[in-house]
Design a protein that fits this description.
Distance between the termini: 69 Å
CATH architecture: 3-Layer(aba) Sandwich
Number of helices: 6
Largest sheet: 7 strands, mixed
CATH superfamily: Bacterial phosphonate metabolism protein PhnH
Strand order of the largest sheet: 1-11-10-5-4-2-3
GO molecular function: lyase activity
Number of domains: 1
InterPro entries: PhnH-like_sp, Phosphonate_metab_PhnH
Order of helices and strands: HEHHEHEEHEEEEEHEEE
Keywords: Lyase
CATH class: Alpha Beta
CATH topology: Rossmann fold
Strand content: 15-25%
Protein name: Phosphonate C-P lyase system protein PhnH
């Protein structure tokens, strides 16, 4: 090999590759251990700028970077086309209606009846193709749970009252306790009563980059 055959490494491409690898691993860990809090890598300036333009949290865009590509589609619930346009530009995913999109982003600004209706309308897939059930990335102002070492981690901005939820099912030893401010979303998920293998998956994420996965196999109960 001659000197002319050696290519210089691109530092920017390297940083993005490492960022995506770390984000993928965090999301994989969260999915493998439902109810446990994982931490996403810190978003760079470009990610933060795109998030601000889309009206989303930077960690939400990080999750979108991992989940989306040109082979899938996405909806941003309760938002105009600008938010979906920013996400599509960044990930190359096509825009789609909330009712049919395999991936849906639910911003902090979408709450109450509007959020409940969005969750209720998500596609559960069908018995022949249950993998078509939607994944909904839900932004939280408060999200607290157990980290990998068992300690309580998370954040709370005080913008909305948090409530406690007990999670049980595959991947959870005994039960996991999660506190968040998205009772609207979790109650709507309970109310769907999807029959396995159909259903929807939730990914809760906060401003600090904490993430909790609630797969369709996970049972949710409110804690008084």
């Amino acid at each position: 090999m001659t000197r002319d055959d050696v290519f210089e490494r691109d530092a920017l491409i390297d940083r993005r590759a490492f960022y995506l690898q770390a984000a993928f691993r965090a999301l994989l860990d969260a999915t493998a251990r439902p109810g446990e809090v994982a931490e996403l890598p810190r978003a760079d300036e470009a990610c933060a700028a795109d998030a601000a333009e889309a009206g989303l949290l930077a960690p939400t865009v990080t999750v979108a970077d991992v989940l989306l590509d040109a082979a899938t589609s996405v909806a941003v619930a309760g938002q105009d086309t600008e938010a979906a346009r920013v996400i599509s530009r960044r990930t190359h995913a096509l825009g789609a209606p909330v009712e049919t999109a395999p991936y849906v982003l639910l911003p902090c600004s979408v709450r109450g009846d509007e959020a409940s209706a969005a969750v209720a309308s998500l596609t559960p897939g069908n018995l022949l193709d249950p993998q078509l059930g939607a994944t909904c990335v839900v932004e939280c102002s408060a999200l607290v749970g157990a980290g990998p070492d068992g300690s309580r981690v998370g954040s709370s901005s005080g913008e909305a009252a948090a409530s406690a939820w007990r999670l049980t099912g595959p991947g959870i030893k005994d039960a996991a306790l999660v506190e968040c401010d998205r009772a609207d979303v979790l109650l709507a998920r309970i109310g769907r009563a999807d029959e396995f293998p159909c259903g929807i998956d939730l990914v809760l994420v906060d401003r600090a980059g904490h993430v909790v996965a609630i797969p369709r196999t996970t049972r949710i109960e409110g804690v008084a």
